[in-house]
Amino acid sequence: MLVLLLVFIAALAFGGWGLWQLFSPTSGDPRAQIAALRRENANLRDDAEQLQQRVATLTRSDQISRDANRDLQGAIADRDEEVAGLRADVAFYERLVGATAQRHGLSVHALRMQQQNGPAWHFTGTLTQNLNRGAISEGVLTLSIEGTREGKLQKLAWTDLRQQSAAPGVVYSFKYFQQVEGDVFLPAGVTPAKVTVRLQPRSGAAIEQSFTWAEALRGQTVAE
């Protein structure tokens, strides 16, 4: 009986040890290792998401910086262009009305041609005079264009360019200078070579000044 009791106790002890080995969270337990790996994997996912968020934030910040720098460069370029234009205006006024300005009568200081839709062209003529200070220059402006079409010389009068048989000229009236604008129409197939501005004062002889087509496209002045 004593032997059987000892055997029964040993069996209980062995069974308890087996259950403890099976369910205890030891380093050798596969389930514990799986749980630890799952926790580590979750931590790695969290770290990866944080890294991705940081990369996205840095990328966005870099793009914002690039956009801001591009806008700043554009603003600087615009300001430089504005300053250059103002300096050119000051130089123009000095030549026209300054104490050392040379006196000259009515003239076309500059002409610019800009293409619009289809055959339409917009012109801007800068008229000046400082010979008679205080006097008002009045009259009308017209254009004529010379070029070629199919190898033949073509001369287009104001009425041709305006597509009206009795087209009136553009009126001007100024003391020192004025920009006069209007539109003309080039017939299809015409290659322009020269444009002539004709000023007909209210009193006195007409004045004509010619510009090559390339000069007119650049808006070049007579002094350039």
Helix content: 40-55%
For this structure, what is the CATH class of the largest domain? Mainly Beta
Major sheet: size, sense and barrel closure? 5 strands, antiparallel
> CATH architecture of the largest domain, please?
Sandwich
Give the total of beta strands. Answer: 8
Q: Report the total helices.
A: 4
Tally of separate domains: 2
Amino-to-carboxy terminus distance: 132 Å
Rg, Å, rounded? 44 Å
Strand residue percentage = 25-35%
Order of helices and strands: HHEEEEHEEEEH
**Given the helix and strand composition, which structural class is it?**
alpha+beta
Shape: rod-shaped
CATH names the topology of the largest domain as Immunoglobulin-like
**Which blocks of ≥5 consecutive residues have pLDDT under 50?**
none
Mean pLDDT: 81
Describe this structure in words.
Residues 34-61 form a coiled coil. The chain has 224 residues and is an alpha+beta fold. It folds into two domains: 29-101; 107-218, Immunoglobulin-like (Sandwich), CATH 2.60.40. 45% of the residues lie in helices and 30% in strands. The chain has helices at residues 2-23, 30-97, 158-162, 213-218, and strands at 107-115, 120-128, 137-149, 152-156, 170-174, 177-185, 191-201, 207-212. The strands form two sheets. Strands 3, 4, 5, 7 and 8 form a five-stranded antiparallel β-sheet that branches. The termini are far apart. The model has no long low-confidence stretch (mean pLDDT 81).
